[in-house]
Inverse folding.
């Protein structure tokens, strides 16, 4: 078998840019899906039936569709349905944020519900408003408790960004596939891709383990 | 059965003057009803609490004592009747309810300290968040209160590093930080190890001696007998008997009060 590993070095710039795009997508998605998840969780826990209904519908829709379908949908259907034109990058971001917000909402909701009812009552009893009790007492405790779950979502998201390659966003997976198409170096490029994803993913996974140990529930 | 309870609702002996009887009552409960589905937690309870009085609510579990306490600061909503604080019915609008809650401190069976805050910050949090007090002033107040409950050396400890009795004393300081007119205690020693019960009861006794108006739901009969000015016995969501401790513990007018006390092994 005739292998040519030099192809990786030749295309190092493109691969690096692809890896950078993968990180950028992950970070931007989480930056938006974090407040999105909190908002959806608070809507779900509110006293207003309409807000609860909207949140429930959103979460159950986007949590139970394959991410790749949401990406295709955002790419093909959304522009027609909503009459908006977006770049592939923005489209990818929308799809990822919809999906991850739904996951985060469930994580936050579980976290908030896991805090004893007595904590809310103790806060109310000293005269706090519900909002103060939520943001000063319940959410800070819930955030600690869900940190491990949240970190796992982060690592999944990091890998799942590869799915947006189907709409030609030039992140790591797409870039690797493009180089493969140009050079016909399938094995080398797939290996390079695996190595790069692994080298970036492994420290994150270790970080998650560490967070689990440090902040995991110890009650 | 209701008629029976009404008929046997005994009052104090005529010669007894109740503490604080010379000024208008702080709290008045008028025919308070509370139901959870089919379960009647309070079946029309009427009661008054005088200024400076220590009132102990006793009775079997599930008899409605804690529910009445929770109706007092609107943690529960009523299904009938009303509660008046200084002659004014409890409000229903949230912003008004908050004002009322600031005037009443509450201590819970399970302490419910905020685990992500130090003892000092637990106490200072109410004044800072609710009263908008500057942080330094709030911390000074918190320090003084921790000193008062005997925990000045534990200010920086987090709740997880305090014993049950210490946590409950911090919880009392936290409630006092809002400078309440009334303190509500919901079985404050029921979750404690026996050896730490005393330190909490001592703090409560000190508060009582300072003239704090207190409502205490408790199973500590010796505390009720020694510290309470007025004791109310609950059964099945209604008042079985009320009176000064000397009446309830030494000479109950209602047979079932005697039965309840003897079940606890109370022999005076």
């Amino acid at each position: 078998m005739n292998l040519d590993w030099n192809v990786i070095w030749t295309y190092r710039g493109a691969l690096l840019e692809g890896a950078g795009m993968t990180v950028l997508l992950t970070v931007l998605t989480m930056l938006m899906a974090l407040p999105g998840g909190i908002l959806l969780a608070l809507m779900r826990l509110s006293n207003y039936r309409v807000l609860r209904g909207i949140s429930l519908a959103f979460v159950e829709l986007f949590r139970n569709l394959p991410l790749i379908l949401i990406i295709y949908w955002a790419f093909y259907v959304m522009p027609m349905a909503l009459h908006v034109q977006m770049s592939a990058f923005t489209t990818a971001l929308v799809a990822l944020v919809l999906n991850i917000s739904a996951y985060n909402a469930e994580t936050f909701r579980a976290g908030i519900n896991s805090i004893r009812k007595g904590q809310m009552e103790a806060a109310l009893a000293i005269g706090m408003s519900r909002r103060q009790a939520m943001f000063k007492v319940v959410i800070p405790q819930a955030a600690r408790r869900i940190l491990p779950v949240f970190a796992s979502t982060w690592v999944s998201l990091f890998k799942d960004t590869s799915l947006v390659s189907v709409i030609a966003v030039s992140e790591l997976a797409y870039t690797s596939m493009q180089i493969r198409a140009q050079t016909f170096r399938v094995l080398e490029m797939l290996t390079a891709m695996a190595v790069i994803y692994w080298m970036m993913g492994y420290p994150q996974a270790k970080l998650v383990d560490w967070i689990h140990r440090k902040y995991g529930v110890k009650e | 059965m209701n008629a029976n309870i009404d008929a046997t609702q005994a009052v104090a002996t005529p010669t007894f003057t109740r503490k604080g009887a010379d000024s208008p009552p702080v709290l008045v409960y008028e025919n308070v009803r509370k139901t959870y589905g089919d379960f009647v937690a309070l079946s029309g309870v009427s009661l008054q609490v005088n200024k400076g009085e220590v009132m102990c609510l006793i009775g079997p579990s599930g008899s409605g004592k804690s529910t009445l306490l929770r109706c007092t600061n609107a943690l529960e909503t009523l299904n009938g009747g009303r509660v008046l604080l200084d002659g004014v019915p409890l409000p229903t609008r949230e912003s008004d309810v908050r004002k009322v809650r600031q005037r009443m401190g509450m201590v819970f069976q399970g302490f419910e300290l905020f685990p992500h805050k130090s003892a000092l910050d637990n106490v200072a949090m109410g004044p800072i968040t609710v009263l908008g007090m500057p942080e330094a002033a709030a911390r000074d107040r918190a320090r003084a209160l921790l000193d008062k409950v005997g925990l000045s050396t534990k200010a920086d400890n987090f709740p997880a590093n305090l014993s049950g009795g210490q946590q409950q004393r911090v919880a009392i300081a936290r409630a006092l930080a809002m400078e309440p007119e009334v303190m509500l205690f919901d079985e404050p020693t029921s979750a404690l190890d026996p050896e730490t019960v005393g330190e909490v009861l001592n703090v409560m006794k000190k508060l009582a001696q300072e003239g704090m108006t207190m409502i205490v739901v408790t199973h500590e009969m010796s505390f009720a007998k020694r510290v309470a000015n007025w004791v109310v016995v609950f059964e099945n969501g209604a008042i079985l008997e009320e009176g000064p401790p000397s009446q309830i513990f030494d000479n109950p007018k209602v047979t079932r009060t005697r039965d309840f006390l003897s079940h606890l092994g109370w022999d005076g």
Remarks:
- Chain A has one domain: 10-215.
- Residues 7 and 183 of chain A are 8 Å apart (CA to CA).
- The mean pLDDT of chain A is 90.
